[in-house]
Design brief:
The chain is mainly alpha-helical. The chain has 13 helices and two strands; from the N terminus they run ααααααααααααββα. Helix 7 (130-143) runs parallel beside helix 9 and helix 11 packs across helix 12 (266-275). The two termini are 21 Å apart.
Length: 326
C-alpha cells in the first residue's frame, strides 16, 4: 500500500510544521523547497502561536516543567499534567523545525530566570529525571546552551541492562523503562546531530540495543507484547513510547549512522502497518490528558496528519522504498 495522491495533497495542505517534513521525507523535494516551507514555521501557524505565548523572562507558563503555581492549585489533583511549561514548549518548537535564531536570546534568559521545580536546580544543568534531562540536552544543543553536565550524566546513569528509568533515581527500579530509554536516545541523537560531538554515540548504541533485544515491543520478563502504550499512537506523543515513536527514532538513527534497518524491528513495523487505513492514513489515538496552549491535531478517531506523516516515512524506510525524484 502506498500513499494516495489525495492523502499526499491532504498532508501538504497543512500547517508548515507538517508540510515541510512531508516535502522532505515523503516527496524527496529539493532542499530549497522544503527549507522555504520550514522557514515559515516561526512566522505562521503552530510555531508562531507558541512563540507568541513565551513570557518576557524566556519561560512559558511561568515554570520549567510545570506552570508556575501548579503544585498549589486544584489542577495538581487532576489527571495528567499541563503541557504548557517551558520544557514542553521548547520540545514542540524544536520538533516542528523552528530555527534557533527565532528564539533570540532565550537560552540566556532561561539561564537567568528558569529553575527546575526539583531542588531549584539551574535549567540548563538539568535535574535527576532522565526524560527531563533528555529534553534539556536536545533543547540546549538546539539553542546553543552549555549542556556539558548532561553530556556526562547519561553514561553515568545508564542501568546495567542498558537503558534508563526515571524511577531509578528514587531507588524505585533497577530495570530500564521503554519510555525513559527512548527519550534518552532521542535527546542524545539530537545532541549529536546538532553539535557533531559523537562522545555519546557508544552510550546511545547500547541503549538502542536494550530496545532491539525486546524487538521494540516485547517484555523482557515474559516475551509478551507490552500492554497498552506500545499500540497507542497519538500526536503529540509527549514522553510516551509506542511502536510508532520508537520506529521514527530508529529511522532517524539509521540515517544518521548510515546503517540499514535492524531486522528485529519487524514486530513493531507490523503493528504500524496494521494500523494504517485503506486510504493511507492513521487515526488519532486517545490524547494524553492535560492543559495545552492550543490544539495541534485532530480529535480521537479522526485521520491525523501528524501520525500519517510519521507512519508513512517509517514504513517507507523499513520497507526500503526510495524517495521519488525531486
Amino acid at each position: 500500500m502506498t500513499t494516495t495522491e489525495a492523502t499526499m495533497s491532504w498532508l501538504l495542505d497543512a500547517d508548515p510544521a507538517v508540510r515541510w517534513q512531508a516535502e522532505r521525507d515523503l516527496l524527496g523535494a529539493e532542499d530549497a523547497v522544503w527549507q522555504a516551507t520550514r522557514a515559515r514555521v516561526a512566522a505562521e501557524g503552530f510555531g508562531a502561536a507558541l512563540l507568541a505565548a513565551q513570557d518576557p523572562d524566556g519561560r512559558w507558563a511561568g515554570g520549567a516543567h510545570f506552570p508556575g503555581g501548579f503544585f498549589e492549585s486544584d489542577e495538581a489533583e487532576q489527571p495528567g499534567q499541563p503541557w504548557t511549561a517551558t520544557s514542553w514548549s521548547l520540545n514542540q518548537l524544536r520538533e516542528w523545525g523552528v530555527p534557533a535564531q527565532a528564539l533570540s536570546d532565550t537560552a540566556e534568559r532561561l539561564e537567568r530566570n528558569c529553575r527546575w521545580e526539583y531542588d531549584d536546580m539551574p535549567f540548563w544543568g538539568g535535574e535527576v529525571d532522565v526524560c527531563i534531562n533528555a529534553f534539556t540536552l536536545a533543547n540546549g544543543a538546539w539553542l546553543g546552551a552549555d549542556v556539558s553536565r548532561l553530556v556526562r550524566w547519561f553514561p553515568e546513569h545508564r542501568l546495567d541492562d542498558g537503558g534508563w528509568n526515571c524511577e531509578a533515581e528514587e531507588g524505585d527500579s533497577v530495570r530500564s523503562s521503554f519510555h525513559s530509554t527512548l527519550n534518552a536516545l532521542r535527546g542524545m541523537l539530537f545532541y549529536e546531530q546538532s553539535t557533531g560531538d559523537t562522545s555519546l554515540q557508544s552510550t546511545r548504541h547500547a541503549g538502542e540495543e536494550y530496545l532491539l533485544r525486546r524487538q521494540l515491543v516485547f517484555r523482557a520478563s515474559t516475551g509478551e507484547l507490552v500492554d497498552g502504550f506500545v499500540t497507542h499512537f497519538v500526536y503529540p506523543s509527549r514522553y510516551r513510547y509506542s511502536a510508532l515513536t520508537a520506529l521514527d527514532y530508529f529511522r532517524d538513527a539509521s540515517r544518521t549512522d548510515g546503517t540499514a534497518p535492524d531486522p528485529r524491528i519487524e514486530p513493531a513495523v507490523g503493528l504500524v502497518r496494521a494500523a494504517r487505513q485503506a486510504d493511507g492514513t492513521w487515526l488519532q489515538g486517545p490524547p494524553l490528558p492535560g492543559r495545552t496552549w492550543f490544539p495541534v491535531d485532530v480529535a480521537e478517531g479522526d485521520p491525523s496528519r501528524w501520525l500519517t506523516l510519521i507512519g508513512t516515512r517509517v514504513l517507507d524506510w523499513a520497507e526500503g522504498r526510495s524517495l521519488p525524484d525531486a
